Amino acid sequence: MNAPATATNLKPQQFKSDVKPVWCPGCGDYTVLSSITKALAALEVRPENVAVVSGIGCSSRIPAYTTCYGFHGVHGRALAAATGLKVARPDLTVIAAGGDGDGYSIGGNHFLHACRRNVDLTYIVMDNRVYGMTKGQPSPTTEPDWDSKLSPHGTGLREFHPLVIALASGANFIARATSSDPNGTADLITQAVRHPGFSFIEVLSPCVTFRPEQRSWKDMVHPAPVEPTDDPARAARRLMTDDGFNIGVLFAGHRKPYRPEASASPKRVAELEAEFVL
Amino acid sequence: MNAPATATNLKPQQFKSDVKPVWCPGCGDYTVLSSITKALAALEVRPENVAVVSGIGCSSRIPAYTTCYGFHGVHGRALAAATGLKVARPDLTVIAAGGDGDGYSIGGNHFLHACRRNVDLTYIVMDNRVYGMTKGQPSPTTEPDWDSKLSPHGTGLREFHPLVIALASGANFIARATSSDPNGTADLITQAVRHPGFSFIEVLSPCVTFRPEQRSWKDMVHPAPVEPTDDPARAARRLMTDDGFNIGVLFAGHRKPYRPEASASPKRVAELEAEFVL
Amino acid sequence: MTQAAKAMTSVSVALAGSGGAGVMTAGNMLLEAAAQAGYYGLMTRSSGPQIRGGEAAAMLRIATTPCDSVDDRYQVLAAVDWGNVARFAAELPLEASSLVVGDPAQGEPPEVFLKSGARYAPVTLKATAKKIPGGWPNMVALGLLGGLIGLPAAALRAAVEKSMKKGGDALAASLAAVQAGVGEAAKIGVRYPLAPAPARSSRWLVTGNQAAGYGAIRGGVRFVAAYPITPATELLEWMAPALAQVGGTLVQAEDELASINMILGASYGGVPSLTATSGPGLSLMIEALGLGVAAEIPIVVVDVMRTGPSTGIATKTEQADLNIAMYGLHGDAPHLVLAPNSVADCLLTTQWATHLAETLQVPAIVLSDQFFGQARAVVERPADVSFAGARQRAEPDAADYQRYALTPTGVSPMAIPGTPGITYTADGLEHGERGTPSSAAADHLAQMEKRARKLDSIDYGEHWAEIEGEGELAVITWGSCTGAVREAFARAKADGVSGRLLSLRLMSPAQPQRLRRALQGVKRALVVEQSFGGQFMRYLRGEYDLPCELTSFRKPGPLPVRPDEIHRKILEWSRA
Amino acid sequence: MTQAAKAMTSVSVALAGSGGAGVMTAGNMLLEAAAQAGYYGLMTRSSGPQIRGGEAAAMLRIATTPCDSVDDRYQVLAAVDWGNVARFAAELPLEASSLVVGDPAQGEPPEVFLKSGARYAPVTLKATAKKIPGGWPNMVALGLLGGLIGLPAAALRAAVEKSMKKGGDALAASLAAVQAGVGEAAKIGVRYPLAPAPARSSRWLVTGNQAAGYGAIRGGVRFVAAYPITPATELLEWMAPALAQVGGTLVQAEDELASINMILGASYGGVPSLTATSGPGLSLMIEALGLGVAAEIPIVVVDVMRTGPSTGIATKTEQADLNIAMYGLHGDAPHLVLAPNSVADCLLTTQWATHLAETLQVPAIVLSDQFFGQARAVVERPADVSFAGARQRAEPDAADYQRYALTPTGVSPMAIPGTPGITYTADGLEHGERGTPSSAAADHLAQMEKRARKLDSIDYGEHWAEIEGEGELAVITWGSCTGAVREAFARAKADGVSGRLLSLRLMSPAQPQRLRRALQGVKRALVVEQSFGGQFMRYLRGEYDLPCELTSFRKPGPLPVRPDEIHRKILEWSRA
Ligand SMILES: Cc1ncc(C[n+]2csc(CCOP(=O)(O)OP(=O)(O)O)c2C)c(N)n1
Ligand SMILES: Cc1ncc(C[n+]2csc(CCOP(=O)(O)OP(=O)(O)O)c2C)c(N)n1
Ligand code: SF4
Ligand code: SF4
Ligand SMILES: [Mg+2]
Ligand SMILES: [Mg+2]
Predict the structure, then answer these.
(1) CATH number (domain holding residue D90)
(2) Residue D389 lies in a domain
(3) Could B150 and D256 be called an inter-chain contact, meaning their C-beta atoms sit closer than 8 Å?
């Protein structure tokens, strides 16, 4: 993030818009929205200096539910749009947000390259291990045996492990959160936004409609039993054997955020034509 | 791969077509081609039972230089085409091949998901850390300080680490090879094709035109100092601290290859309409 | 006191309510009951922005003849509650003779419905249901609607039984609730009785998405790779188990780029292949469609069109992907574009598209739409047509085999991997006859001509369009506007206006000779389409030399095109 | 013995040879020398399939007036060696009065060049070079060509000095080799002397790709995200350092999906943004272009067209992306499409496109092509036009701010992140005026009308097309065919045939009134384009009511359209 010019005294509520969410009652995304608004209040930013960028999906509807600037783009491209925005407007606090389908399936390549590029922005994925918006198809994080119309008897595919991928591709901050703990999640988001470079938070956020069994996640989550590390190799080992329910900061690195170099020899536009002149 | 019906006695030369490569003299891809033809001979397959699938790039020209069936598709989509082919035609031996730009930049998402899907095919990437075909732009594996017209003074970006990503996304066999050792590479390809599921070989293959300094790779490579492991967490640690020049099989897992389930209740086409009949 | 009611050949009724009220269940049962009673029918559905649990409406038309279009107005609107039902007002036009039924315990009907002059009949749905242990208001509403339109009790019973196969108490309660609803209907004093059902025939109850899926399998498709997207998902969800049963496979791809490249790979392997999507997904498939054209690999892409541009309105219909389907590819890239003209025709058109794609070794795009895809209809059992995969395969060890040989038809036998002696590399780079990349002008021209020529190498026969009627006036249309145009013409006949209906099924390659013949003697033509920009009109102007004056009638989605608006337009225009 | 040679106003010469022979270096120096001598010029290049080290040809036209087209035939073909030079035969048409120069030590010239009747002059380039320590045959060839066309020695010297800034022995050797080449030329006995150079004026030496990049920066572009692709890469490579110098940024994206979404993000942030690509990349940008339309985010996409379809011929030109640029988007998605009509005009058109995109808050596609993009030309310094970013920004704390307000023009002030009190969410879902998603028919219609209306809300002024000449005949064309048509008309005048030239710069929105006015009195029009399928012809028919008879003249790439073929067509057609 970029430091706010002046401290503000805004309440979380002031980051919540009057647009009524389309979400089902009980959807985990409601509390993620609350966590974001709490984090923004804690960060003492002003809504006009924050942009929330998303793709398509239930979770991707989140920008309009905040009072920040929002960008509800096309499916899978949130990180690309967020990257362009932040590079062009480094003064803004940029948060990309969306679902597991948006981020890990169609958006997988941008996820890889955003981690690698390490632009100073925060990516929040509301992972419900399903495509909610399109009414219940398996996503990359869906369990291999989850039965659905499109994949009767399950896909048979090993789950995609977002945290490991984030680490392997160079994310600078990696955390797991749970929608069952809005304050804890708000705190993780706050830390993530403050951490320079690309920060990634995977939030377990149940889809009560298509995966009602995920309601039990709240009983399965637990604080990560170890301190965050800044050693990727150690983090890799830890994450690869992780039970999927460790909550907390799991990796925090020191890579320098991407920032385009300012030219050593700035010019006026008209000067550029010198090289053409005969 | 699928076992050949009958052993063959073909020579490597019989897998080489009469089409003249467009490659620059000295390009590493020539020896990769030789390694592939050697491997195919060693595998005792017949050219008509092998399909070589690629995207776009210098390296992606490889299919037509073999006597196998070839598919020279669009940039970045080799793995998708190869997946469709292998799933529809499990009897064929399918090899996808291409460059670092094709596979790790535009094709990154398919790489992730092909590793995860674990279809029984082999992916060979000729990594020269540059876009050769388009005349010298940085690729994901390019060193951050490599100066080019498009990125004066370098990109400043951390390299993409293909082997770690492959491991993190679930590839079943991971090896690094070097074009300076055609026989060794042939042997690794042979092993990879034989290994069930998705096997990935990263071949260091210099671009003598745009990265002439890569000629020195041949002096930097060395056999991996350790035995291959089947423990992903251990492999992760190893690969993340790897010097980039370890040659050999670095991971060989035991995941079951993807194979669509045959129906327990096969039907004739006309029977499908029963559900519509009033 | 029941009004003397004239028997009707078509009745439209809608059932609405908040999420969880079960209006879709009841709507489906009503359609089933109508089918059991020997009627034709069509059910469409609408719901609010809520992902689940929002307001919903089941909209049915039941008739003595096949329904290829929605009707102008609803005779009955029943609501289990009024929640946000007012948001459907634009989709539920009523008239003075309509009836609005609501539960007085849920408040008054929204003004927007009553201002039509429709009569309001309060019916205590909830209280009535409550009297029956396990009874639900939606079942009371089902009985009520069945009663109002005069469906036989046996048909209602059969429909309920069919959908509650488990039977037991729940079934009994539902049957009782339906019975109570029928009783309530009788008390209202208005009826919309259907004319007697026509003679029984062999019929299906099917959605356009299912019909398209089945047509594809009939055409030979055995591999599908796709990525979910509304409103194409149900096509895929129907195909997944169906394909498995006939020895095929469906792969859920990571995105649309993967799905289309997967099917290119599979089809290159000799297996007829398909994907289904909607506008945003089709946009992502454009590059690979071009590869299919250049490398001559047959594939079928079903685009179930929704309201655009961009993400647009995912759950609503529109005919505005004609542009991208026809002209979306970069370079000159001749390919097939087809469009079904009814729910049932989704079968024939998709099957034909598969057949043509295979025969001509070229991608085919099928332009279905949300209306067809998600409508459930009682239709005449579609005829068995014999279109099936007919790819010309090269012989093993063929001498001097050239994959892209310049044959007279432009179609060259294709080597299928596994066949010895004729290996080749399929290429999206311009190439010579052997397939070797070439930048020679002569090769480019020869291959361009070949690829264009093959599309004109076969006789597309009578299926290229539906042509009905006679006269100096014509309406030219396509896709889901066809039913409404047909009905408008039928009505115009009563006004003494008649003309020809032309609905194009084969959009590309254009058939100028055929169209000219079909329009022989026509002085003026009205072009009807559901697109804001007039894409079909521009297509006709660009592709054909139309021998008559053209007038455009168009509107965008999301509302369906209704017979009345076209009828009025025909009258006004024919008299102008 | 030198023939008496008439001074020529235009001479075309080519220099070819195997990889490493340095023909491009020599070609560039020759162009520079011509420029130094006060001539105009145009250089295009061709190379074999080899990535590097393959045969190459530098093709130059040098003239007393600006060259917007290649000429019909080459007066001189010089080859350092004959390697695979024969593969360029189709690109290097000769005539009986042409001269073929080759080094006899490298064998005889290929028959294909001599069958034109051209005279062969053997010149020992290599041996001559060898005599000069550090001398190279390409420099001898440079001198030879310079001598044959009569470039002053000082100009040649200046050009060599300019490109070998290091000076020293290498420079001296090159100068000596050039001198020797001039000497060899004198011995041949044929000359193609240029008429005296015109009066000096302010000129540039620039490629179309550079001009487009500079035009974009002039128009206000400060953010570029892109993915390399031939023949657009040089545009990006020129912009990368240039942007940095004016405080902008270029990001190399992971793919085209990322690049276009990045520029949407950046432009949403208030920074005018651009990407450049070619056909395959444009195909991948289609979905996000639709987002730009729906969410009303200005961006500029420069498509440097190459031969299609699919990967096609990456290094060659064609005008066949008109379809995708105009009609490639799904749904009804009005946007801007512009096309430059000369190398220099790449500047104005890209600058104008940026200005229009910003003014109208809509994506603009600029259709340049490989010919323009990679040609280096000596051009009149382009005029300073004042088109610059003119986005209407919303005021801080504006009351009841609505991002998609239904203004009379259709353009609504845009809130830029950072501005307090007017935050909103940009959306590709259909929406109401505030931006909140809506599936209401009324909102859809209102926003569709708004988005269409704004494109017609401004006066595009005189730049919409180039219009030249008078008469009852017209040639309508666009893009890189323009120069050849202009030249063909100039020649036709000598045959007593004259007419109007109309070259469209603004392709979308179509300008039917303007075109009608421009064609007033025209009876017949010839439509000239470089596409196999006649995309421009179909576009004209679909978008305009042309008041005259149309004839199509078209051919695909990869060969450039030459004045002679159009001249002949004009004569034949004008007399038919
Ligand atoms: C290009 C494209 N393909 C497909 C879709 C359909 N689609 C919309 S949302 C979605 C998946 C949503 O899943 P996820 O990102 O996990 O979000 P959730 O709804 O679960 O929160 C899909 C496939 C689309 N809108 N665009
Ligand atoms: C969609 C698309 N974008 C861009 C290109 C241009 N392009 C061709 S090859 C290539 C990169 C090649 O790099 P790599 O895969 O590393 O192969 P190499 O040439 O180095 O072997 C690019 C960007 C293209 N053909 N298609
Ligand atoms: S469908 Fe699932 S993810 Fe979507 S809003 Fe409902 S509960 Fe949330
Ligand atoms: S440019 Fe580089 S990668 Fe391409 S053929 Fe030449 S050496 Fe090989
Ligand atoms: Mg999800
Ligand atoms: Mg490379």
Answers:
(1) 3.40.920.10
(2) no
(3) no
